[in-house]
Amino acid sequence: MKRALIAFLTVALVVAGVGWLLTAPSTLDAAILPNPKTGNAERGELVFWAGGCASCHADGDAEEEEKLRLGGGDPIESDFGTFYAPNISPDPDAGIGNWSFTDFANAMKQGVSPDGQHYYPAFPYSSYARILDQDLADLWAFLQTLPAVADAAPDNEIPFPFNIRRGVGVWKFAFLDDASEPIVALPEDAGESAGRGRYLVEALGHCGQCHTPRSFMGAGGMIESKWLAGGPNPDGDGRIPNITSSEAGVGSWSESDLAYYFESGFTPDFDSVGGSMVDVQENLAQLPAADREAIAAYLKAVPPIGAEAE
Amino acid sequence: MRISSFRISTSILAAASMLFAASAVAQNTAPIKERQELMESNGDSAKAASAMIKGEQPFDAAKAKQIFNDIHGVAMKFGDYFPEDSKTGNETEAAPAIWEQPEEFEAALTKFQEESATAMEASVEDLESFRQQFGMVAENCKGCHEDFRIDDD
């Protein structure tokens, strides 16, 4: 009896220990990171718009220059609680002015804060993990040029059990995929533009975060077999549309229809962009036309998924 | 005790379902259709405008004027079709925010009315000035659709 108890406790302890290790925040080896001195702020501005940083980190009503004041944005009301994107302006107290480039890389690619805590995946590091080294250095350089905002963003309002940050480690262990492999294998004839589009969509644009349904009733990871097939709106009413090339998606849109939508906000039947896509479209309008065309080429090349897949 | 609470809960349930049925039939689809048609008209105007801006059609000053006249006409009427009993039905995409934040909705409408009037009265003699004026008016489409429309496709 006593022996059985000892055996049980030993197993329990090992399971807990392994679980603890597997859910620990892991950080990057600074030696493999690019040299931040190679960062170019001008190129970084395009990374900034492609990444949609302002959509969460600037005020929701911000227009034009105000979108560069990254004091934290509107509350993100999800099924797990209310998230407030933090201040990422260069302010040393309220923002990230005291961060090193390694801190920034760990946040973007590992979802880990400078004090070694997991970030909630409302911050789309599962996409940003795919960012190219040069883009990371360029974005860092651009962020340094922005105005410091002295107001700290409010704390998240997350109820139990989601308020246990270590639990995010379980989520990461279960759902973070291998960021060194693209999500979609493109056909060989897809062309260079679609390859660029893949990077913009899968990494910087983090389009799948809303346009791909999630496992575990919306709490899990993006279901890659339903990549871009649409799903419930994670932050409000309505649905996020299917944007694969099926009939249920954007099958009837030409590449130039898509590119024009990203530029102007008008659909082929001249409805206008709405909801949270308004911010996204305005970000895309800041990119070179070739990048909008690249996203369009990629969307037309991803596997078509029908309405029944929803 | 058990029986009476059961009775109470069934009567609450019955009352609630009657209320629900009443609110479902009370919805007024006529204004919903009216406002949907007005938006269709705006879509036609935007289509005509974009054809000129994209160079698919030559710039035509008379047509440009007509586009702004039509859009302004819609802007002046659109707000009349949101009575309290028109929140659901006929596949409306109107967001609850229209009735929950009436001041914001009103402000967005007023901006649309004023800017479409500005465009209508502006002298639009070439493609570049048309592009500018239309760009200003078109900002109102997404400005309103960002908060006051729910996409349910």
TrEMBL record, chain A:
The keyword Iron applies. The keyword Glycoprotein does not apply. InterPro entries: Cyt_c-like_dom, Cyt_c-like_dom_sf, Cytochrome_c-type_DH. It holds the Pfam family Cytochrom_C. One of its GO terms (molecular function) is heme binding. It comes from the Bacteria. Residues 39-147, 192-303 form the Cytochrome c domain. Keywords: Heme, Iron, Metal-binding. PANTHER family: ALCOHOL DEHYDROGENASE CYTOCHROME C SUBUNIT, BLL4482 PROTEIN-RELATED. This is Cytochrome c-553. The lineage of its organism: Bacteria, Pseudomonadati, Pseudomonadota, Alphaproteobacteria, Hyphomicrobiales.
UniProtKB/TrEMBL annotation, chain B:
The keyword Iron applies. Keywords: Electron transport, Heme, Iron, Metal-binding, Signal, Transport. Binds 1 heme group per subunit. GO terms for molecular function: electron transfer activity; heme binding; iron ion binding. Residues 1-26 form the signal peptide. GO terms for biological process: electron transport chain. GO terms for cellular component: periplasmic space. The keyword Glycosyltransferase does not apply. Transmembrane segments: none annotated. This is Cytochrome c556. InterPro entries: Cyt_c/b562 (IPR010980), Cyt_c_II (IPR002321), Cyt_c_prime (IPR012127). Heme c binds at residues 141, 144-145. It comes from Fulvimarina pelagi HTCC2506. It comes from the Bacteria.
